[in-house]
Predict the 3D structure of the following.
Amino acid sequence: MHRPLTFRCQAIATLQSTLQLPSILHKESTIRAWFDDPIGKSILQPMFNELMSNGDFFGNDDSGDGNIGMDMLSFLLDLPLRSFLHFQEGFLTQPPDDIADMLLEQVYGVKS
């Protein structure tokens, strides 16, 4: 008795487009998602850098991550925008939700 032969193939394709897709960012998008979006990154990066230069993210004097045993930057990048802003509330000049709304208005107001 003959068994039928089964062939399996796998291919990986990388596609690129010149089409500028609309942003899908929202208040609950992670900081990482904001940085992956070209427009979101250009809008959020300056504020993120300024807030991170405080070196006092959790109200500690330590800016390192040795005491809590985790990669602080990865943790922060996986936070939703609103959560990140609420953690930084003491350093903000406006309520976190107002800042999130302002950032989103900038994202959706930018024309490519």
